[in-house]
């Protein structure tokens, strides 16, 4: 499995909100909090109005393909209180949510499967909605 992670971008607005989330008593000890902190620390931060439209930001809706099973998924990256797996709303604190944050269209994430067998690989195919691209800079 590749250990090199792709470069990621995060908007300053998302950064502020994610740091606040991680400092909250409710989520500070969440199992996904350390992974999210690590991603935030390595991210390049840009102003919301400077965010390229091909980057997965908070509340973005994207299409991705599992390169192992070839299944496609439409997912929306959300804060934990809005997560609903059945509706494709994935928490940023879930392993896949943390991994998708800041990726560009065409980039691939890889992580161990829950069973420990072959690694899972998701490729971002497109972004159908990104708040920054829609002009929703203060959502």
- CATH-defined topology: Chitinase A, domain 3
Q: What CATH architecture label applies?
A: Roll
CATH superfamily (homologous) name:
Transcription elongation factor, GreA/GreB, C-terminal domain
Regions with pLDDT < 50 over 5+ consecutive residues? none
Distance between the termini: 37 Å
Shape: globular
Number of alpha- plus pi-helical segments = 3
What is the total domain count? 1
Please write the CATH class name. Answer: Alpha Beta
Question: Mean pLDDT, rounded to whole units?
Answer: 90
Order of helices and strands: EHHEEEEHEE
Number of strands: 7
* Spatial ordering of strands, largest sheet: 5-4-3-7-6
What does the radius of gyration come to?
A: 14 Å
- Strand % is 25-35%
| Helical percentage | 10-25%
Biggest sheet descriptor: 5 strands, mixed
Detailed description of the structure:
The chain is 20% helix and 26% strand. The protein has 139 residues and is of the alpha/beta class. It has one domain: Transcription elongation factor, GreA/GreB, C-terminal domain (Chitinase A, domain 3), CATH 3.10.50.30. The strands form two sheets. It has a five-stranded mixed β-sheet. It has a two-stranded parallel ribbon with strand order 1-2. A hairpin with an 8-residue loop joins strand 6 and strand 7. The chain is globular and about 40 Å long. The N and C termini lie far apart (37 Å). The mean pLDDT is 90. InterPro entries: GreA/GreB_C_sf, Rnk_N, Tscrpt_elong_fac_GreA/B_C, Tscrpt_elong_fac_GreA/B_fam. Pfam families: GreA_GreB, Rnk_N.
